[in-house]
Amino acid sequence: MGFYVGIDCGSQGTKTVVVDGGDGRVAGSSYVGYSYVEGLPPGHREQEPGIWVVAMIKAVRDALAQAGTKRVEGIGVSGQQHGFVPLDTSGKVIRPAKLWNDTSTAIECRWLIERLGGVRRVVELTGNTILPGFTAGKILWLKNHEPANYLRLATVLLPHDYLNLWLTGHATMEAGDASGTALMDVRTREWKEEVVEIIDPGLITKLPEIQPSSEPAGTLRREAAEALGLYEGVMVSAGGGDNMMGAIGTGNTRPGIVTVSLGTSGTIYAYSAKPVVDPLGEAHAFCDSTGAWLPLACTMNVTVATEVVRGLLSLSHGGLEEAVEAAPVGSNGVVLLPYLTGERTPNVPDGKGVLYGLTPENLTLSNLARAAMEGATMGLNFGFNRLKQMGIEPGEVRLTGGGSKNGAWRRMCSDVFGVETVCLSVDEGAAYGAALQALWTREGGSISEITDRFVRLDEATRSKPDPANVEKYNRLQWLQDRLSTDLRSVFSS
């Protein structure tokens, strides 16, 4: 059957796995970290795309050495969504890439929304609003702030597209990742010229044609093969954004399954056979990378909140779990609105963290620890509730990310979400999904049959909701949502 390489280019590092195409076993894995461009103003997050290539080469070589094989049948690449990689006519990077967590484009996004007729009109056009994290605002930012660089712009790529270009020599883009640009109509999987031309009438010629996610991006060129220690001509799949590949890697390829990632930021998403468009623009109407759709909500503050509080209280990770367990549901009235780095869902980019409900009696270590975890989880549940209001019917939540290793958090998630939660036996997330997409591209057939065959659950982690706790969290959710709504005018003042 051969082996498949899955690569996930994230904002903190690149993960690579080598997956056995016969049984789905991870035969080798490697991770190479890197950092942001230093010295930038607040709100700016950038990286040199060249470091992704260097990291990918090392991670692939190390994972292949661990697996003891070069019999690779396919390569799939996952990448951090929304990043803007600008190339000139020779295919060289013009400037560092602005990343998904770069919020410096808020002014450009507001301008675009106003010119297009408001949020509801933008959603009518593309299925999504235009948020500071999305690619559209970054392109306009380059035009406004670095006009000389903009004049050099010949091709717009996303991070995973750039790695595909390096691997194959071809500039391509697929619908899943492209749907996070805010330039594509998610219903038709085509660029929306009315939106594109607001930025620049000539921009449409700089956007690659959107190809089906089931088609290869190309084959491994000779120079790339030599650098990776592989043979020329290996198939490279279309790849996709990290959330799209995470959906495949968690088996979220059929209705009823919801994936929740408890990472630095948090995502919650579900498979849909048809577009799911939020007229308010709070949930994202993305395409997935298998030909279907992936309605999604993203929050900026998940382990951001718990790690800040853990550091403040000088707790180990085990100590944090013990502290959370020592406090009751609701943290004796202590509520943390966790907008420490602003927020994306709900869209409160100027939001701030707020501690509410403090008294001399409840201001304790354990209550603060639990309030941080509850605040982050209910922040995700705001988006989860929005997805349910639009017709998503969850039967099971599959947890992934660093926070899912915390037993107290897993139990809290089942109570807050009101459904059973479970983790994966192989929690390689987006990298694993990228490898499975490559296998699917080569073998054909049903993607859900492939994920049913390979994605296995860790039943020892399964948690069932406690009805009494579900009721308590429903009341707390109302309070957190009300606080968020009432304070938005304060945040922006």
Model description:
A hairpin with a 5-residue loop joins strand 2 (13-20) and strand 3 (26-33). The protein is of the alpha/beta class and 493 residues long. The strands form 7 sheets. Strands 1, 2, 3, 5, 13, 14 and 15 form a 7-stranded mixed beta sheet that branches. Strands 18-19-17-16-22-23-24 form a 7-stranded mixed beta sheet, sandwiched between helices. A two-stranded antiparallel sheet has the order 4-7. Helix 13 packs across helix 14. The termini are far apart. The protein has 2 domains: 3-238, ATPase, nucleotide binding domain (Nucleotidyltransferase, domain 5, 2-Layer Sandwich); 251-424 and 456-493, Nucleotidyltransferase, domain 5. The model has no long low-confidence stretch (mean pLDDT 95).
Tell me the layout of helices and strands.
Layout: E1 3-9, E2 13-20, E3 26-33, E4 46-47, H1 49-67, E5 72-79, E6 85-87, E7 97-98, H2 106-116, H3 119-126, H4 135-145, H5 147-152, E8 155-157, H6 159-168, E9 173-174, H7 175-178, E10 184-185, E11 190-191, H8 193-199, E12 210-211, E13 218-219, H9 222-228, E14 235-236, E15 240-241, H10 242-249, E16 257-262, E17 266-270, E18 284-287, E19 293-299, H11 303-312, H12 317-326, E20 335-338, E21 353-356, H13 365-389, E22 396-400, H14 407-417, E23 421-424, H15 429-443, H16 447-454, E24 457-463, H17 467-491
Parallel strand pairs: 1-5, 5-14, 5-15, 9-12, 16-22, 22-23
Antiparallel strand pairs: 1-2, 2-3, 4-7, 6-8, 10-11, 13-14, 16-17, 17-19, 18-19, 20-21, 23-24
Helix pairs in contact: 2-4, 10-15, 11-13, 12-13, 13-14, 13-17, 14-17
